[in-house]
Amino acid sequence: MERKQPTPLDDFLFDLRGYLVLKNAVEPDLLDDLNHAFDNFPELAPGQWWGNAQRRDYTDETGFELHNCVEAGEPFERLVDHPSWISLVTHFAGEEKCYVEGVFIDECIASIRTSGGHHPVHSGGFQGAVRGAYQYKNGVFRCGQVNIILALTDVREGDGATMVVPGSHKSNFPHPLAGDYAAGDRMDTLEGAVPLYLEKGDALLFVDGLMHGGSSRTNPGERRVLIYRYGPSWARTRFNYEYSQELLDRLTPERRQILQPVAPARPPVAQPVP
Ligand SMILES: O=C(O)CCC(=O)C(=O)O
């Protein structure tokens, strides 16, 4: 697959709306491998570890969320620098044209949502964290976090589509009707929010500072998505997961550079503490 480069239209739409939809981002073989991996996830209780990945649902209603899923098998590794988006996320969040150029992965999550599940509305420009902030200045993007949500199943009406409030990454006011994340308020009918329907294999790219969430799934069956969050090379993962040496050792140099942009600085042999 050819590496997709950002176009002037991508820049215009990303700046205007805060998101892009990447059609047919992932090839059928890889989708099959990822779905096969999902089929074989074990039953995990919230908080339970599976190797170096951990089930850690964001809320009681988001459903199964396997964090650090890049440790869950080789197909997940192929997404790290996937040609459909790696140049885009690097362009938006990778500190282009400066001494710390490059991206790292802040979080990577395998998510399964069933009927009744949803992800409450959150983010938006108003008092947003620097970690997810949108910025374009002096001819370069300086976003704190750009997310990829890859659909492994079709996500249509009733399937629990991700919803966004287009343009809200720049908003200077709180949304007066947005509700409360901690209370688990649903965003299904939020004024200004639109669902982004995806076909299996499409990916949604958006700046985390965009107001967003997951609408209620009302259909039977599963919504399966992968969420990979990219940030600047110098940042640290939200929950401080550490990668296993086995994973780091087998990655291509390009992938290792993204998971570990800066190797730990240690003396060659342990030195006595003076
Ligand atoms: O599940 C979704 O569609 C949205 C996910 C989300 O809001 C997030 O991970 O921040």
TrEMBL record:
UniProt keyword Cell membrane present: no
Keywords for this protein: Dioxygenase, Oxidoreductase
Entries under InterPro entries matching the protein: Phytyl_CoA_dOase-like
Domain of life: Bacteria
Short name of one Pfam family: PhyH
Membrane-spanning segments: none
Signal peptide: none
Single annotated GO MF: iron ion binding
Claim: Oxidoreductase is one of the keywords in the record: yes
Protein name, per record: Ectoine hydroxylase-related dioxygenase, phytanoyl-CoA dioxygenase (PhyH) family
Organism: Actinopolymorpha singaporensis
Organism taxonomic ancestry: Bacteria, Bacillati, Actinomycetota, Actinomycetes, Propionibacteriales
